[in-house]
Every structure is written in structure tokens, then in C-alpha cells.
Here is the input.
Amino acid sequence: MQHNPGFLQLVEQAKKRVKECTVADVQARLAKGEQFHFIDVREDHEFWIDHAVGARHLGKGIIERDIETVIPDKTAAMVLYCGGGYRSILVADALQQMGYTNVVSMEGGIKALRDAGFPLEKDKSI
Here is the structure.
């Protein structure tokens, strides 16, 4: 997908403020038994196709509205992912502006998870 210049500029600005991690980092955290919220910020129809095992869905369109109800602890560890790593950067930036202090965006998104052979599942409600 070809992204528009304005969108890419917005992402690049957010990258200066947001920590990123790799799939390998996520796998290492899981292997250590670290507790964190693994959040898929893609659209509903994308999540239904497949998502990381154990991931919770809070789409980019509603996460700012619902995050304080779902995860009231603003120090809770969160790893966000999307399709390729751009939307999750923007969401992480917004959550930090809302006072969340332990938010990380995963580089490469679901594509990187698939490439790494990360366990995926389909939405069970379909």
C-alpha cells in the first residue's frame, strides 16, 4: 500500500515520541512470563481475519474513548500493533498524551507477526 505524504509525516513525528519494539522483543517478554496488555488496534474486519493469540482488540477508531475503562491503570504495560506499524505508532502517541506511561508500538504489525510464525487465531465469534 502506498501511504500519503501527510500521513507518513504524522507517523514520523510520532515516532520521535513513542518507543517501538520488534516481534522478537514481544516473544522474549512472553517467554519471560512478563505481563502486558497486547492490543490489536486494527479495524474490526482485520481483527476477524486473524490476530495474535492473546491479543485484545481495541480499534484505532475507539481506543481513546474506551481505554480508561478497559485499562484504568495508566502505568500498565501495553504493546500495540496494527497492520504494518504505522497506526499503532499514532495510537501509542495519543495514549501517551492521555497519561499512559508504559506504551510501546510493535514495528511491522501483523505482517511481522505472520513472518515470524507467531501464533495467530481467528475471531471466535464468527
